[in-house]
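ok so I'm stuck.
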Amino acid sequence: MKKIILLLMPLILILISCGENGVEPIPQPQPGRRDYMWTVDTLNLGGLYPTLWRIWGSSPTDVYVIGEGNPPNNNILHYDGKIWKAISDGSYFNLSALYGFSKNDIWLSSVDNGEVWHYNGSTWKLITILKVDGYKKVFIQNFYGTSPNNLYACGQAFRNSDDEAEGMLFHYDGNSWKRFLAPGYDGMIFSDVRIYNDTTLIVRAIGFHNDLEKILFWNGKNFSEILSTFEGTSLINIGNNVYFSNGKKVYQYGKESFTLLHDFTGTDFRILLGGRDDKDIFAITKSGIGHFNGTDLQIIYKINFCCGYASIFEKEIFIIPLYEENKLDLILHGKLKD
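replied:
not stuck anymore, here's the structure
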């Protein structure tokens, strides 16, 4: 019996060693913190109503916002970690879209005529004016990309009048802008686009003359509708993952389908703002800024707004809150406590 036990000992040691030196389990994200300190900056763009439309930053000390400034010199503002400062030279009017990959690689677009501008770290340069044959003008709503060689612009093109809109996509390959091969979507505005695994496109479309909203999937040949609803939607990315909301439900995309991440029925949830991972998500609610930590949704800042945009960093978040009754251009700035 003693001899058998001695013979088994090396096997036991090998098994223990394999367990200790084997593949480590993938660490799971921890619930996001909620102990933010909030400040509110009021920016005066000179308009009669709130005109901030987009926000993007490479770091908490390099944040940009754009809008419809009056005069136009007020329509690009930059935050250096201490103050907001107007930096526009007045060449860009009614700005609508903003996105970047680094402090030396930033894109913006104008509402009026499809102008696309690029910032190289020192100067803004007009790169192109997007046009489509048979259409009067192009309006870019948003940019999104995975690299400087894979950037998309989404929006709409107008035919003979401003009442005839068709949702469209444009692509930049690092050299030039071209209309994306996808057909237009009549009567819809492409308000957001996201990319999954560098190739799969997911588009949020909203009705030009009604409140219909759609989530579209591009399969390389045509669009298929994942969702068509009047409940209200949002589309965001968190890292390489893509999420959308439909009413009170939030879904995550993967392998050509969406799975339910969480059902917020019974809460004040409205739409998604952004996040760091699926246990650290920010949302717009009827009561203010909501935070989902993987378990529950709690209000972390009370304010009355219906939509907005955010730029999120490791320990800080900047939010543009938009609401028709709010006559001020506000920036909410949250910092996690040390």
